[in-house]
Design goal:
- Helix 2 runs parallel beside helix 11.
- With 711 residues, the chain is of the alpha+beta class.
- Strands 2-1-5-4-3 form a five-stranded antiparallel beta sheet. The protein has a five-stranded mixed beta sheet with strand order 7-9-10-12-11.
- It is built from 21 helices and twelve strands.
- A hairpin with a 3-residue loop joins strand 9 and strand 10.
């Protein structure tokens, strides 16, 4: 590693350590929390203005999240990467060549040179152990913890190994079993820790498994204590007596225990692949895999070593240090890449946060300058925010409104309605377009239309709402003016129609009486052709009289005469009175109900509805009439199977003078509506194209004089 790379490595380590541990720096999680909360607040507080900036910010957040995920995961195996596959093959070939030539080399070193090998290894393994344990603390990785403990064991054993070996330079008998024995102990502990790490805790494709700090502390100290005891214990055991089968001079494999170490390193490499460690993007894990392969070959080579400090012995020690160095190189690359990624991540989050702040500022301006009244409330009904328009309209200062109850700002006669709407909102999260009377500070009121948009926390719990309140004062005034103007016009039309109707009735009576006299004379002469012509004249006169009656019924304000009457009797009288075609069947209800009503007025309603049904079906079909007797009201349904009412006409059918027929005054249905409402009831229509129409009349059983007077 050249000086520039080493300098960059040191600077990167320092910067990363400061960024990860300093509370004064802007940390990634803080940015995520702040940006996300700002986004949620903005999105939930305001509506459809400046959406471009907000969408851009959200899109950046999505990209940042994906980048954060890619720090830990890579969708492709590095075995499927041709360059990495070639690098792995070349590594194995190189190590195999080194293994082969180690049998032909004659290379003897001194104990002091061996001491330098070990010290160099101690430094390298200590660096790796430090960063692994640092990763375990910062990332809360159990796998990093166990790998770090393995390197701690290597550092302890190698350091004690070097110190004891240096102090017993002249005692070759002791060093002949102490040095190989401590090597085996260090290799077995190191490889075993790798197997434990990869086998038990390597959930590579999942987020880092976090654990309780107190439990971690206890377990960590326990494991560190065990590692220290094993490491130091192996040294002391090696000081006392040699382990059997440590060194066999009569066999080709002189160190059979190192074959065990080679098997453990190979098992750790297999476990690494089995647990999908090859899918992790982090270069540190790629370096660990190379370290396992290198140490596998180092253990194979040293297993053929027949004496301390010979070629196989020295090459194995060098390969062990090379393995450490490779891990450090990959660790440096990992740190640099992660630091660069985090740096880019922070920059993009800062940009996103700035965009969200800009969007929030625009939404805040929209909120404050809107002509509508805005307020935000919590689930207790307390106002937590409002715009200036709301405060001005209710004659309060903004400071007086914050913290007040929403029920303080409504009139007494609509407070129950607001409470019902508020409870419904808390249960369902929905509150749309309900009209209430808002109350100003001076006690005066004004009508308003209230709608609410619900706000939820990250767990989906309802926590607040943003309420839009539209002042209906001007709208209602405009409606009243329109109604007054319409009423004036209708009054003028009514007066004119009444005069015309009265003027028509007398001439029509004369015509009718005259035609009847002529018919009597014709009957005596048996002139059938003239008789049919006079019948047509009579039908035309009847139709004109019917239209005249419709006009008079609509314009006359005759007081209702209520009596307890059977609805079936009114229907029977109506059916006898009107001319029902032979191809029309009227199905009357079997049950009967009684209500307080004006017999003659309901007669007009039924005549109009049944006549309309007959005409809608072109004088052919069925008409169903049904009664539903409820506790306080009677529901009367008149159903036909005609073509139905088009949607464009449906909203106008009760308007005076509106008709879709060539013959008609357009006053029949308005008269029906007027009569039903004077009885304190309602009339509505249900229709489906090509299937028919049903008129539904709801009348109270008992007369509600207050309602009638009000109407």
């Amino acid at each position: 590693m050249d000086k520039q790379l080493f300098s960059y490595f040191i600077d990167t380590i320092s910067a990363l350590t400061i960024r990860l541990h300093s509370g004064s720096k802007l940390r990634e999680d803080e940015l995520f929390t702040k940006s996300s909360s700002a986004g949620r607040s903005t999105a939930s507080s305001y509506k459809e203005e400046n959406m471009v900036g907000r969408n851009t910010a959200i899109r950046n957040l999505s990209e940042v999240t994906q980048t954060k995920k890619m720090i830990r995961e890579d969708p492709s195996s590095f075995f499927s990467n041709s360059k990495l596959k070639i690098a792995l093959i070349l590594l194995c070939i190189s190590l195999a060549v080194i293994t082969f030539f180690s049998f032909f080399l004659i290379w003897q070193v001194s104990n002091v040179e061996h001491f330098l090998f070990e010290i160099f290894g101690v430094v390298l393994s200590s660096i790796i152990a430090f960063f692994c344990l640092n990763r375990a603390v910062i990332l809360k990785h159990k796998i990093s913890l166990f790998i770090g403990l393995g390197f701690v064991a290597s550092s302890i054993i190698d350091s004690l190994h070097a110190i004891v070996s240096l102090n017993f330079l002249g005692d070759n008998l002791f060093l002949n079993y102490f040095i190989p024995q401590t090597w085996v102990a260090g290799r077995i502990i190191d490889s075993s820790m790798m197997i434990v790490a990869f086998g038990l805790y390597a959930k590579f494709l999942l987020p880092a498994k976090k654990f309780d700090k107190n439990k971690v502390t206890k377990k960590t100290f326990t494991m560190i204590g065990i590692i220290i005891i094993l490491s130091i214990g192996s040294i002391f055991i090696s000081l006392v007596f040699p382990i059997p089968l440590l060194l066999l001079e009569d066999f080709v494999v002189h160190r059979p225990l190192d074959v065990l170490g080679a098997g453990l390193f190979l098992a750790a490499a297999v476990m690494f692949v089995k647990m999908r460690g090859n899918l992790v993007q982090d270069h540190f894990f790629k370096g660990l895999f190379a370290y396992l392969i290198i140490n596998f070959f180092a253990e194979i080579i040293i297993s053929f070593s027949s004496a301390n400090f010979n070629a196989q012995f020295n090459i194995s020690h060098i390969l062990k240090n090379v393995g450490y160095f490779v891990v450090i190189l990959f660790l440096v690359k990992s740190i640099i890449l992660q630091y660069q990624t985090k740096h880019n991540l922070v920059e993009r989050l800062q940009t996103t946060y700035y965009q969200l702040e800009q969007s929030e500022q625009k939404f805040r301006e929209l909120y404050e300058t809107s002509p509508d009244l805005y307020r935000s409330i919590n689930t207790d009904g307390k106002i937590i925010e409002c715009n200036q328009r709301y405060a001005q309209r209710l004659q309060y200062k903004k400071e007086e409104i914050i913290g007040a109850s929403i029920f303080d700002h409504v009139s007494e006669d609509t407070i129950d309605q607001l409470k019902e709407s508020f409870e419904r909102w808390k249960q369902r999260g929905i509150s749309n377009n309900h009209e209430i009377q808002m109350k100003r500070k001076d006690g005066s009121t004004f009508p308003a239309l209230v709608s609410a948009t619900s706000i939820y926390d990250e767990n989906g719990n309802l926590i607040a709402s943003n309420t839009t309140i539209k002042d209906l004062t001007e709208i209602n005034k405009a409606k009243e003016q329109i109604q007054e103007e319409k009423l004036k016009r209708l009054t003028a039309i009514g007066e004119l129609s009444a005069r015309i109707a009265h003027d028509l009735r007398n001439p029509m009576s004369v015509i009718k009486n005259t035609t009847e006299l002529i018919e009597l004379e014709l009957d005596a002469k048996h002139d059938e052709s003239l008789s049919k012509k006079f019948q047509r004249i009579n039908r035309a006169i009847t139709r004109i009289n019917h239209q005249v009656e419709n006009v008079l019924d609509f314009v006359r304000d005759k007081p209702l005469e209520f009596e307890n009457t059977s609805v079936s009797s009114i229907l029977n009288y109506v059916i006898d009175k009107i001319n029902v075609p032979s191809d029309v069947t009227i199905n009357l209800p079997k049950n009967d109900v009684k209500i307080y009503c004006d017999f003659e007025k309901l007669e007009i309603v039924f005549i109009n509805l049944i006549t309309n049904a007959i005409q809608a079906m072109s004088n052919t079909g069925e008409i169903n009439i049904r009664f539903t007797d409820e506790e306080s009201q009677v529901i009367i349904e008149i159903e036909d199977f005609g073509p139905g009412i088009p949607e464009k006409s449906l909203s106008k059918i009760f308007d005076p003078l509106f008709t879709t027929r060539q013959v008609g005054t357009g006053l029949g249905l308005p008269s029906c509506k007027n009569i039903v409402e004077k009885h304190g009831g309602t009339i509505e229509v249900k229709t489906r194209i090509d299937e028919g129409t049903t008129f539904v009349i709801k009348l109270p059983k008992k007369l509600n004089l207050v309602a009638v007077d009000a109407k």
